[in-house]
Amino acid sequence: MASSPSSFHAQRGITLLEMMIAMAIGLVVLSAVIVLYMQIARSFHQQHAMADLQVRGRMATQLLSEELRRTGFWGEILSPRRDDKCSDMTRAVNITCAMPVWGGTAQQAKTLGLIPESASTLEYSTSHPSAVVAVRYANHGNGACLTLDASRQLTFDQSCQGDWHYRTGIYHLRMVDDAYSGEKVPALYATQIEKPNSDERSISNEIVRHVEAFEVEWGRDETGDGSANRFYSTIDVAQWTIQDWDRVVAARLYMVMRSEKMAQLMPAREFLVAGRVLAFGPDHYQRRLFVTTATLRNGRLRGAYDF
User: Fold this and answer.
1) Where are the domains of the chain?
2) Given this model, what pLDDT does residue 237 score?
3) For residue 6, what pLDDT band results from cuts at 50, 70 and 90?
4) Sign of the dihedral through C-alpha 111, 70, 288, 47
5) What is the pTM of this model?
């Protein structure tokens, strides 16, 4: 039976024009899907970087806050005395002077013997603050045993018969090699040394990376009521004596943290750090400023109750 003309028309394929229109529509849809995927992936990467930045910043500030709260504690039954030599800051760092806390620059820390000259420290940048914080206290850890000598001055018990052990931590910034980015990045380090001004090898441990600025303001009790009346920057405390550090009851920590290197360019940022504006140009890093105030409870108790 012969086919009708309408049957032939129903069985024919698509024309070239129809195929080109279909391909164009498909490319538009595919392009939209790719653009949407890239935006979602970029947004996810940014959120992940900020979450990681948040965790690292909180961890670093919390660690330092806890250390500062403990500093100046010499044990429940240890009430050390000092001699006249402690008025000299080069000698005040000796354990016999029981200096509770100290803050300054890396070079000042080396001069005082808090960080050995051989310690690998590096100021990150002259335009960014790079403070050093030294805390010292007694705990039940694994350090050298502390005791009081006949004149009630702190000393090390070589036989380790006591219950209290010496804990020290000098927190500072240095540059380290980063395998992920292939560059040198700033990191917060803690240097521990049991006996300052000795030949004993110090041990440095990395705390957290990508700390671009570290500054501390020290709150001093100037009225004897146990509260901070005024805060001083690292520059202001350069000439402080051990008696000045005894009156420190609070510390305000500033840390500018940055993320891992990102693919997209991030805008310029400015942060107010201890009354100073820090400017960062556009680059491939997200940044955030972390600020927290820690109470030096042992110094506050000494000031409020005069012991």
Assistant:
1) 35-305
2) 92
3) low
4) positive
5) 0.81
